[in-house]
C-alpha cells in the first residue's frame, strides 16, 4: 500500500481470479470514520501459470533476488550450460496495449522462453527503462513493467520489450494510451504525437 501526500493506493503485485471480491478503504481520525468500497473482478487467463514459480523455505528471499538479477542480466550458472540445446528467445505471452485514465497505474507483462535464460529489457519510445520510483520492474516467471506515480496524457508512448541471448533475439511492441479529462487519448501516428477519440470496433 502507498500513502504519499494524502494519496493512498493499494496495488496488487499479481492478481488472480480467486482474488475477486469487494475492497473497502476505511479512513479514521479523531473526528470520525469514513469508508468507500469497490469491486475487484479478475478475469481468469488459462494461458498463465498460476502456481508459484518461486522457491519455498527460508532461503526463498535470497533465491528471488538471484532470479531477478539473472532475469535482468541474462545470466545462468555455467554448470551444464553446454549440455542443453540452445534456444533463441520467444515471447510466449506478449504485452497488451494499456488504456488507462490519468492518475492510474499502467501495467505491461510478458513471458519469455529461451536458453540460456534471455536478458529482458523494456523500452519507452526507444529509450531503455531502468528500475526507479516511477518504473517498477519485477520478475516471478513473468516479467512486469508498472508505470506509476500519476500517469498523465503526456505519458502516452510506445512500449517495447526485447529479449536476447546468444542464440538470437526477439521483441514485441505495445502502446500506452492515456485518456485525458476530455475523454481523448494521446497516441503516436508514426513518430508524431496526436490525439483523438478511441473507437473500438466490435
Automatic annotation (TrEMBL):
Gene3D superfamilies: Immunoglobulins (2.60.40.10). GO terms for molecular function: protein kinase activity. Residues 89-185 form the Ig-like domain. InterPro entries: Ig-like_dom (IPR007110), Ig-like_dom_sf (IPR036179), Ig-like_fold (IPR013783), Ig_I-set (IPR013098). PROSITE patterns: IG_LIKE. PANTHER family: IMMUNOGLOBULIN, TITIN HOMOLOG. This is Ig-like domain-containing protein.
Amino acid at each position: 500500500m502507498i500513502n504519499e501526500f494524502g494519496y493512498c493506493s493499494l496495488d496488487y503485485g499479481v492478481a488472480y481470479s480467486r482474488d475477486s471480491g469487494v475492497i473497502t478503504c476505511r479512513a479514521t481520525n479523531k473526528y470520525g470514520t469514513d469508508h468507500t468500497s469497490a469491486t475487484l473482478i479478475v478475469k481468469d487467463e488459462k494461458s498463465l501459470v498460476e502456481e508459484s514459480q518461486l522457491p519455498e523455505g527460508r532461503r526463498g528471499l535470497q533465491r528471488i533476488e538471484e532470479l531477478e538479477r539473472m532475469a535482468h542480466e541474462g545470466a545462468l550458472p555455467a554448470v551444464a550450460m553446454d549440455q542443453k540445446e540452445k534456444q533463441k528467445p520467444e515471447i510466449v505471452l506478449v504485452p497488451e496495449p494499456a488504456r488507462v485514465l490519468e492518475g492510474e497505474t499502467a501495467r505491461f507483462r510478458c513471458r519469455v522462453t529461451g536458453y540460456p535464460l534471455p536478458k529482458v529489457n523494456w523500452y519507452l519510445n526507444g529509450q531503455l527503462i531502468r528500475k526507479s520510483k516511477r518504473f517498477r520492474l519485477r520478475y516471478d516467471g513473468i516479467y512486469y513493467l508498472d508505470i506509476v506515480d500519476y500517469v498523465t496524457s503526456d505519458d502516452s508512448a510506445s512500449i517495447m520489450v526485447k529479449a536476447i541471448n546468444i542464440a538470437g533475439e526477439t521483441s514485441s511492441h505495445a502502446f500506452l494510451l492515456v485518456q485525458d479529462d476530455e475523454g481523448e487519448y494521446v497516441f503516436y501516428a508514426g513518430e508524431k504525437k496526436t490525439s483523438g477519440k478511441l473507437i473500438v470496433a466490435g
